[in-house]
Amino acid sequence: MQSAKELVLRCLWVCTEAEPAPAPAPYPAVAPAVAPYPALAPALAPATSDGLQAFFLGLNKRLADDDDAGRSGNLVTSPLSVYAALSLVAAGAREGTLDELLRVLGAPSRDFLAGHVRALAEHVLADGSRTGGPRVSFACGVWHDSTTLLRPAYRTAAAESYKAVARSANFRQEPEEAREQINAWVAAATNDLIPSILSPGALSSCTVLVLANAIYFKGKWEKPFDKELTEDGKFHRLDGTAVDAPLMRGLGRHSIACHDGFKVLQLRYVQGRSSPGQPQPPPIYSMCVFLPNARDGLWGLTDKIARDPGFLRKHLPCDDVLVGDFRLPKFKVSFGVTMKGILQDMGLKEAFELGKADLSDMVEDGAGKLALHKIVHRAVIEVNEEGTEAAAATVATMILCSYSVRPRVDFTADHPFAFFVIEEVSGTTLFAGHVLDPTTN
Q1: What residues contact 295, with CB distance under 8 A and at least 6 apart?
Q2: Residue 380 forms beta bridges with which residues?
Q3: pLDDT tens digits, residue range 121-162?
């Protein structure tokens, strides 16, 4: 028996079979255009995506193991949002600071990061709502103090590779007004699922630069659940107690794989239609629920997942099976965290050190030396009979250091479990988290 708070909402992950693309030009030139999907840049090929997946899973594992975060309650994150924000930082980093960022992100170069994020934004995370698919949005933003000039090369790279619009803000004299502007941008980019990410006092007159990323997803199930079949049932928590939770019930055939010690359920979302002349197929999104057989088996399962970057891909179901007892809880989870300590534990240290960080490719000479001050992350997800709605945002603030006839398969998710919303063609993880108790928000 367990504490019902584990639903590792692990990310919409994207890893695509790819043909070699032209080698990127030396920075500050923007990375070459992405080839038609699914023949994307090599950055999205499975071999290189495993390095990125290692960052996604490593970050999520550290959050899940944190006594003040995942161990104490439900968890949802978007490692992809953190990855995009740090990639935007790397676009202006040099020397040891850049080397450290690349090592933590599992990337060989700054151009690789730019090409990978641009491929995701233009192809995998393109909005599919106009053709009947999930509504998806991906946005980045840059705010610089009105007294500080961005380097033209950085402004161009941010716009062309990260779709980031650069804006001037009066951090020095009106930091609270600037904070409200950034919060409003996040709210708009996440369809108001995250109305605020920066708390009062988060910015000050010492703030010089703010970088942000936001991701939004809303998809309907290919096989929606019947609301009339949803009823309260026991959900067993890790501490041995149980709580009444609304459990959705499924009938017929579902995509389930049975492995040693756990099962995997894959629920597809309605996919968009291909348009005439469209050079690439639409993305394929699904949610994957990793359910340990033992009621207290979630932590052991998440340890296995974190050790092997290809674990998710290797254990997805191959076909549908008839289900017997099929129950899955409805849930809504929100989570927020300051990432500095976690990222420092992962090896990102120099970027936070005043006087040592080298982010000199961001701003013009004479502005002083920049250093990361804090990185804030928030994520929200809601799963019900109709589908899934989720959003995440990451904000990085900087200061100047001058400042066969098979048997029916039961899938009874009445105890903590892990789940993943994935884009199947490319394989990149967007969101991650866990639920220990589906009745708490």
Answers
A1: 1, 2, 236, 238, 415, 416
A2: 334, 391
A3: 888 888 888 888 899 999 999 999 998 899 999 999 999 999
Q: b/e for 199-224, b at 16 or more Cβ within 10 A?
A: eeebbeebbbbbbbbbbbbbbebeee
pLDDT in tens, 281-340: 778 899 999 999 999 999 999 999 988 888 888 999 999 999 999 999 999 999 999 999
CA within 13 Å, CB half, 98? 18
| DSSP per-residue letters across 56-74 | HHHHHHHHHH-TTTGGGS-
Report the candidate in 142, 137, 114 with the shortest Cα–Cα distance to residue 27: 114
3-state DSSP helix/strand/coil % of the chain, to nearest 5: 25, 35, 40
Q: Give the ranges where 92-174 is alpha helix by DSSP (H).
A: 95-105, 110-119, 152-162
Label residue 27 by pLDDT band (50, 70, 90). Answer: very low
How far apart (Å, rounded) are the C-alpha atoms in residues 48 and 373? 30
* Claim: this prediction has a pTM higher than 0.90: no
Measured in residues, the chain has a length of 441
Is the four-CA dihedral 421, 427, 430, 432 of positive or negative sign? positive
Query: Please, are residues 329 and 235 in contact by the beta-carbon 8 Å criterion?
Result: yes
d(CA 376, CA 289): 27
Any idea which residue has 């500050």 for tokens?
28
**Please, are residues 363 and 150 in contact by the beta-carbon 8 Å criterion?**
yes
What distance in Å separates the CA atoms of residue 168 and residue 150, rounded to the nearest whole number?
Answer: 10
- Quick one: 83 exposed, middle or buried, by C-beta within 10 A (0-12, 13-18, 19+)? buried
